[in-house]
User: Which sequence fits this backbone?
């Protein structure tokens, strides 16, 4: 006969085995669902995204800018193109949109809605895909290279002072502040990698 300790241990062991089996089943279901429906889910999200945002690469939004206080008085609508961004050193000349949804980034460079606009004196955060038609060559940018943003209310130039690899979860490396006009432009890294990437190549540039 088993004593009480042996009986209790058998019960604990059985519970542990049940938990392990349940975990394996759950992980299997999650993996199977992702494998079977992953592309469909991604496509559905992209379709919803495209319906919610109407991007027109041929139209540049008119923005009203008060030069005396260096502040925009009339902002563009989310998802609209409001400028061009140029980096002559790597042959980049792309439309710049307000927003960073998938439907926006498939047309050009996007600007974070949580940051400032060119000319406002604060942080500007922009991002783009690492494909050859977008920011594939961004890691080739050198210190002192110039990034130009051409808007309807003025042209703004930024000189590169730093570049670094940043993890996508390290938000402290993309600080938004209002004391100095700094442009932060990034893309997924490595640019020739396959699959999901958690690192970003970030270029930091100051207004000149």
Assistant:
């Amino acid at each position: 006969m088993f004593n009480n300790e042996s009986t209790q241990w058998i019960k604990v062991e059985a519970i542990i085995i049940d938990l392990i089996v349940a975990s394996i089943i759950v992980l299997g279901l999650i993996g199977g669902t992702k494998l079977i429906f992953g592309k469909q889910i991604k496509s559905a999200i992209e379709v919803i995204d495209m319906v919610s945002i109407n991007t027109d690469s041929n139209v540049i939004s008119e923005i009203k800018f008060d030069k005396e206080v260096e502040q925009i008085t009339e902002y563009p609508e989310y998802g609209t193109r409001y400028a061009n961004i140029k980096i002559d050193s790597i042959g980049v000349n792309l439309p710049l949109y307000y927003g960073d949804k998938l439907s926006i980034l498939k047309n050009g460079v996007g600007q974070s809605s949580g940051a400032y606009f060119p000319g406002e004196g604060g942080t500007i955060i922009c991002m783009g895909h690492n494909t050859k038609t977008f920011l594939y060559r961004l890691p080739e940018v050198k210190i002192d290279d110039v990034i130009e943003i051409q808007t309807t209310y003025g042209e703004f130039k930024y000189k590169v002072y730093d570049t670094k690899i940043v993890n996508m979860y390290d938000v402290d490396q993309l600080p938004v502040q209002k004391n100095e006009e700094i442009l932060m432009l990034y893309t997924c890294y490595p640019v020739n990698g396959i699959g999901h990437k958690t690192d970003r190549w970030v270029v930091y540039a100051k207004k000149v």
Observations:
- Helices lie at 4-52, 102-105.
